[in-house]
Amino acid sequence: MAARLHHFLPLAALLLLVGAGDVAAAGNGKVPVALYYESLCPASADFVVNHLAKIFKDGLLDAADVTLVPYGNAKHGPYECILNNVEACAIDAWPDLNVHFGFINCVEDLVVKKKREQWESCFQKQGLDPKPVMECYSSERGQKLSLKYGKQTDALVPPHKYVPWVVVDGQPLYDDYEAFESFICKAYMGHPPKACQGLSRQYPIVQQVVKAGNGVSYNSADLEELDDSVDGEIEMVQDDGN
């Protein structure tokens, strides 16, 4: 009996190590997704509420690492600066994506419904303490966050042309941003989530891309707009139909 137990223990340890490796690989294999947006931009609010919010419900979030970057030049009015800072402070106060996205989604839903002045109601709706955000957004901290997101936005290569500006796996999606789920499924190297079923026929075909020095790629149709100071390489990319 003791001999059998002696042989069993190393096998059990090996199985545990294999299982742990699978978990680690799954955790490190998410597709980076970045959304650059303005809080009062109608198209940005619509994307957050009617498109991005879906992956928090359909399971695709398991394959995506989402980053939100609220920043703009207040072209939608001075109130936009307030809400940009509010949402930046929410991200800072609650680093958990599910928490700060829940709050931001609530605010953007009010923007869609033309009830932006009621944004403070989202604290109660989401069960969140308003203190960290209220102390942040009108303070020096809020201004620093705004500057940080401004630098991130301005550093995009190629530069963003409008909002919402969605980047998946280093590739800006341009006008295809509403198909971002298909791009996530295409880039994900793990076992496809169920949410990817039915999206296979929607995978975009990128005929040619240019990879800039920072890893961001863009379509060959925009080659004429390249900054000569940006080094990159051209490669052909074909859709394999999977």
Note down, in words, how this protein is organized.
α2 (about 40-50) packs across α4 (about 95-110) and α3 (about 80-95) packs across α7 (about 140-155). The protein has about 240 residues and is of the alpha+beta class. About 45% of the residues lie in helices and about 15% in strands.
On the 0-100 scale, what is the average pLDDT? Answer: 79
Main sheet? 4 strands, mixed
- The order of strands across the largest sheet is 2-1-3-4
Helix content: 40-55%
Terminal CA distance: 51 Å
Listing every helix as H and every strand as E from the N terminus to the C terminus, the arrangement reads: HEHEHHHHHEEHEEE
Low-confidence stretches: 1-28, 205-242
Count of strand segments: 7
Q: Which class of secondary structure composition applies to the elements?
A: alpha+beta
Strand content: 5-15%
The number of helical elements comes to 8
Q: Could you tell me the radius of gyration in angstroms?
A: 21 Å
General shape: globular
